[in-house]
């Protein structure tokens, strides 16, 4: 994110900072929860419509949707400072909805009971990791840089696995994916916290909240997907 952090309790008083930071972080989590809720609703609606499923996955449209999702994230990341807060919100909600369309086929492969079980496991794990990232006094910057490098390796391995599916590589990818996104949850939470600045305008604070929510949303979704590969019961 192209935002600078000026978080300093000494600057405006610890009480004021704490109250403002609390409201800022609650805003981040609200956006994130809203995005997850929208993704879930779209996924359930898609699963309930055989015609829609066929239209998306039987025609190759899901690849275009996947590319569109990447495009939205890049657009938001690269143009965030020039976009209005309304546009930033619209892009975020659009991304969450598109993600619901593409995730529906993954949920179709697993039983509803195992999906619900893994979701609650993911939520509990995410909550604990995010609390750690928020409360720890340890600087996670170096740890985060290592995780980001690992993420690029995970992406490359996943591409290879598309052409050479199955075998031990799939297991390794799932295991590494869980570890990477578990770590990124703590790292991103600390980073989002440090981005807070009590002097920000309402619009800038809103943009930071949406971008922070997007980071945590992606951590949650990916952690859920990799845990589902481990713990989910296939139909």
Describe the protein in words.
This protein has 9 helices and no strands. α2 packs across α5 and α2 packs across α9. It is mostly helical and 235 residues long. The protein has one domain.
User: What's the average pLDDT?
Assistant: 87
Please work out how many helical segments DSSP would assign.
9
CA gyration radius, whole angstroms: 19 Å
**Count of distinct strands:** 0
How would you briefly describe this protein structure?
The chain is an all-alpha fold and 235 residues long.
Question: Characteristics of this structure?
Answer:
82% helix; 9 helices; mainly alpha; 235 residues
Task: Please outline the helices and strands.
Layout: H1 9-12, H2 14-47, H3 50-57, H4 61-79, H5 85-108, H6 112-135, H7 141-163, H8 168-194, H9 202-231
